[in-house]
Design a protein that fits this description.
- This is Ig-like domain-containing protein.
- Pfam families: ig (PF00047).
- Keywords: Disulfide bond, Immunoglobulin domain, Membrane, Transmembrane, Transmembrane helix.
- 22% of the residues lie in helices and 35% in strands.
- The protein has six helices and 28 strands.
- A hairpin with a 2-residue loop joins strand 7 and strand 8.
- It is rod-shaped.
- The C terminus is likely disordered.
Length: 459
């Protein structure tokens, strides 16, 4: 052993503890979001390399760090990034590599988080029956190309619509009462063979209304029996009049009611092309009153009534035609009656005049005879004593005395068995007038120059 050297070998090792691992964000990571996994170790041997690896896949990343930690960023996480991850630390000391044990695992879970969609309706508020309505669903998301679902909360109504944008509009054509109710929408998307659904949106209510305009009312008289006065429409009794009710409406069918406040009657007619006419062929006093129109329509077993029109007062007035006709007929008869009465009075007066005329005639004959007998005997006296004034007075006095004597001596002639000749028959004025009036009323016309010609012959 004299020349032999004793060689001593020193063996050393680097002890590395198990790294710790953490992930941000904690919990589920939204699809497309960035995630970070941090590995750290407690050691004095810095400058080593951190290794992140997928426990069930081929994913493996390394990162050298001058510190005791390193963060691995996974951009736009997708479902391929899901799984468990572990990390490890490696260091080279004196040309020798040392590795730490594997860390605990951390799980990366990817989720597609969809926000609650928003919902709106057009038109806003009530929708008129038969009108089109639109309900729009929209969502704020990066996952486009999904499907919007519109459903009625209290019914079986459900519609779907795929959209390449973040919104979709559902059109409901010709809305009726079956479409009334509350609606909600939802968004669904399929990502990496997995389906994701958004929460339900808030609700929007579709209410159906049937607004009816106030009808209009008009009055006319086809045969001209209508006059508008200060108190309303004046219709002549016996004439016809027509009320017309009309309305502008796009609802099918419907009916008009004409209401009279005077008689309390209500007439109803179907509305054709938005109007209806109510005919009154003969105006009577019972038609007096205020008239107004109401429109009513039935839609989906519901009745809707318009407001009442302003009323039109109707006054029935008496016709002047019968009065004018009576005057036209009775006028000539009255005139003829007056003429007949005048004729009777004149006739009676002339029947009383013959005794006076007879006396005057006898006096004239007597004077003529006296004059003829004495004209030759007393011719001289006559010419000497003649005074025209005295002569006229004497003649007048003689005529008066002769009239009185003849009147006293006049006796009514007597006839056998009450017979009176036709020319001397007399009647009282009342009896004569009564007889003539009876004839006038019995006969349509009176020929005063024919049948009663004897009246004038006796004048």
């Amino acid at each position: 052993m004299g020349g032999a050297r004793l060689r001593l070998c020193y063996f050393f090792s680097v002890s590395l503890s198990k790294p710790s691992i953490s992930m941000s964000p904690v919990g589920e990571v939204t699809w497309g979001q960035d995630a970070g996994i941090t590995c750290s170790i407690s050691t004095k041997h810095l400058g080593g390399t951190f290794i992140l690896q997928h426990t069930s896949g081929s994913f493996r990343k390394t990162q050298t760090s001058s510190t005791n930690s390193a963060t691995f960023n996974i951009l736009q996480v997708n479902f391929g990034n899901e799984g468990s991850y572990k990390c490890q630390y490696q260091i080279r000391v004196s040309s020798r590599d040392f590795s730490s044990p594997l860390s605990d695992s951390v799980r990366l879970s990817v989720a597609v988080s969809l926000l609650k969609p928003s919902i709106s309706m057009s038109p806003v508020g009530e929708v008129t029956w038969g009108q089109d309505a639109g309900i729009t669903c929209s969502i704020s998301t990066q996952h486009l190309g999904g499907t919007f679902i519109l459903q009625q909360t209290s019914g079986s109504f459900r519609k779907t619509q795929t959209s390449s944008t973040n919104s979709a509009t559902f059109n409901i054509l010709q809305v009726n009462f079956g479409n009334e109710g509350s609606y909600k929408c939802q968004y669904q998307i399929r990502v990496s063979s997995r389906d994701f659904s958004s929460p339900l949106s808030d609700s929007v209510r579709l209410s159906v209304a049937v607004p009816l305009q106030q009808p209009s009312i008009s009055l006319a008289s086809p045969n001209g029996g209508l006059v508008w006065g200060p108190e309303g429409a004046e219709v002549t009794r016996g004439y016809s009049f027509v009320f017309t009710c009309s309305i502008f409406s796009h609802y099918p069918g419907g009916e008009f009611s004409l209401i009279s406040s005077g008689s309390g009657l209500t007439n109803t007619k179907q509305a054709f092309t938005g109007s209806a006419s109510f005919d009154f062929p003969v105006a009577e006093y019972e038609h007096l009153g205020d008239y107004s129109c109401v429109y009513e329509v039935t839609l989906s077993a519901r009745k809707f009534t318009s407001t009442m029109t302003a009323s039109i007062p109707v006054i029935i007035k008496m016709s002047l035609l019968p009065l004018v006709s009576s005057v036209a007929v009775v006028g000539p008869l009255l005139l003829l009656l007056v003429l007949v009465v005048v004729c009777l009075v004149c006739k009676r007066k002339r029947r009383a005049d013959p005794p006076v005329a007879l006396a005057q005639s006898q006096l004239a004959v007597r004077l003529s005879n006296d004059y003829d007998n004495n004209k030759y005997e007393d011719q001289d006296d006559v010419y000497e004593n003649v005074n025209p004034t005295d002569t006229w007075k004497k003649l007048k006095e003689e005529a008066g005395r002769a009239e009185e004597e003849d009147s006293d001596d006049y006796e009514e002639p007597e006839y056998c068995n009450g017979y009176v000749p036709e020319g001397e028959k007399e009647t009282s004025d009342d009896e004569a007038v009564h007889e003539i009036v009876t004839q006038l009323l019995d006969e349509p016309t009176l020929d005063i120059y024919g049948e009663h010609e004897d009246i004038y012959q006796n004048f």
